[in-house]
Specification:
16 helices
Length: 331
């Protein structure tokens, strides 16, 4: 188990490692000294592997059958639990072209992705999305908001609206996430597709694709780096809690992978960062529709607030995302 944890830790970037010195001590090297550690060899190997077509799961982990647990069967059960909890809300074919475009750009071999009309209305009300061993389910309500925002930004770039980013998001949220729209899918409402010129629509599609990449590649990071298996093994050796259950290590790692794959896809870092802000905004706005603005999400108080043991603050997550971009570009 320690070997698996250490491998996972060494996949982090130098910037992320520098903040985790004490935690890394058990693995040896690069985490306890006063100077930031250099990039571990495995990080270079990961970057090179990502250049190949047909990207599949990281081979550093593999499921086994032991006296303790049949890992392949347990992983399959994890997938099935996600399906049972969310399948009633699936929207067949919604945003499939975007997912295929993202997989092609990152050379991902295969991804099983579903869209829920609104994850908040399922048995797994997570913000953004949820991933198990081979399956990810993305929050359709968040994606609907992103599509509306992308249309507004495209119109802003062309000069046909003077609304700021904050105003565009708030207007889109008031339409997409009103009480009457809970648990329902909706095409852009504040900035309908029909109101865009062909050029604006093309630009909106690209903006939406890049924003979606922020969450899509994060969830794929969980699948690609065997995070379900890491959690399973942790539960065996530390029943009822422990390292992965109560810290943000796995989510942090997925954020770094998201940065790497977004950079590989040629996306703007600002688009991925906006996706993270919109993901957080969607979660909080649902609790008080109309009483919360996007400006609250972008404030330093919210950006640096630590609200969950499972996730780092938004500011830290963006720093991890940035380290993934930097890691790809430097290799």
């Amino acid at each position: 188990m320690l070997t698996d944890i250490c491998r996972l830790r060494r996949a982090f970037s130098a910037g992320a490692l520098a903040t985790m010195g004490v935690w890394l001590a058990a693995c040896g090297g690069g985490g306890d000294s006063g100077s930031p550690p250099s990039a571990a060899p495995v990080e270079v190997q990961l970057a090179r592997q990502l250049q190949a077509s047909g990207l599949e799961k990281n081979p550093q982990f593999s499921p086994v059958i032991t006296a303790l647990v049949n890992e392949p069967a347990a992983l399959a059960q994890m997938d099935q639990q996600i399906v049972q909890s969310t399948s009633a809300s699936y929207l067949a074919g919604r945003y499939t072209n975007t997912f295929n475009r993202l997989a092609q750009r990152a050379s991902i071999a295969r991804v099983y992705v579903q869209v829920s009309s609104d994850l908040a209305c399922t048995a797994v009300p997570f913000g953004g999305g949820v991933a198990a061993n081979t399956l990810m389910v993305l929050d359709g309500k968040m994606l609907d908001l992103m599509a509306d925002v992308a249309n507004g930004l495209a119109m802003r770039e062309s000069g046909r609206t003077s609304l700021s980013l904050l105003q565009i998001v708030d207007l889109a949220a008031s339409q997409q996430m009103s009480f009457s729209r809970f648990c329902q899918a909706a095409d852009p409402l504040a900035f309908p597709d029909a109101s865009l010129t062909p050029g604006e629509l093309d630009r909106s599609v690209e903006l939406f694709t890049q924003m979606t990449g922020g969450t899509f590649f994060h969830e794929f990071g969980h699948i690609w780096n065997w995070h379900s298996l890491a959690k399973l093994r942790e539960q065996i050796f530390v029943p009822g809690g422990g390292l992965f259950t109560y810290t943000s290590v796995i989510e942090d790692n997925a954020d770094i992978i998201s940065g790497i794959l977004n950079a590989k896809s040629g996306h703007a870092q600002s688009s991925a960062e906006l996706a993270y802000d919109l993901m957080a905004f969607t979660v909080i706005y649902r609790r008080n529709p109309g009483g919360y603005s996007f400006g609250n999400t972008t404030s330093w108080q919210t950006q640096y607030q630590q609200t969950s043991p499972t996730y780092s603050s938004l500011a830290t997550r963006k720093a991890l995302l940035s380290s993934g971009f930097s890691g790809w570009r430097s290799h």
